[in-house]
Design goal:
Layout: H1 13-33, H2 41-51, E1 54-55, H3 56-63, H4 67-79, E2 83-88, E3 91-99, H5 101-121, H6 127-148, H7 158-161
Antiparallel strand pairs: 1-3, 2-3
Helix pairs in contact: 1-5, 2-5, 3-4
Length: about 180
């Protein structure tokens, strides 16, 4: 690309966000492929590792996707023997999903991968900038959720209530 060519959205926060998200997704996808996974599948494994077994409806809500989308991903992960589905005793309409032992191992590997990509993404950011960026992105997401009618819960975090000047440990990645 010629140096003099400037994208018309260069001064747009939205454009910068889309570019950062696209590159983050690409980098994460490259790392996930090393684990035999595709982008999006890691979110299901992380949600189950964090919250334990849950219904398909709860899983879809946490991931902010429609139930058929969650079901399709769970089916693929089930064929990889990373998750299991069980009907609820007394009500076969309720299906719960849980990680298998291999799914738990993959989830731990995903956590390490996620930390590595986050360290790459935020290289050169101090703790105050990291915290501020997290808070601002959550606020932007909540704004759009409100306008689009999406669920607005889950965008706040404890550190949103803390003073931005407080220190948190630096994220480190070991090779």
């Amino acid at each position: 690309m010629d140096k003099d060519i400037v994208h018309p959205g260069v001064k747009s926060v939205g454009w910068a966000l889309v570019q950062a998200a696209r590159l983050h997704r690409s980098r994460t996808g490259d790392k996930l492929s090393e684990l035999g996974l595709f982008a999006g599948q890691e979110q299901v494994l992380q949600a189950l590792a964090n919250s334990g077994p849950m219904t398909m409806g709860d899983l879809a809500a946490i991931l902010r996707v429609r139930p058929p989308t969650a079901s399709k991903t769970v089916s693929r992960l089930s064929s990889l023997k990373l998750v299991e589905r069980h009907t609820e005793p007394g009500d076969a309409r309720v299906v719960r999903v849980k990680l298998t032992k291999e799914g738990k191992r993959k989830a731990a590997a995903i956590d390490a991968l996620w930390d590595e990509v986050e360290a790459e993404l935020l290289a050169g950011f101090d703790n105050k900038d990291r915290k501020r960026l997290r808070k601002l992105l959550r606020k932007a997401a909540k704004n759009l959720a409100g306008i689009t009618g999406a669920d607005q819960t889950g965008f706040e975090a404890e550190d949103d209530l803390e003073d931005l000047g407080s220190e948190e440990p630096e994220l480190t990645v070991t090779a």
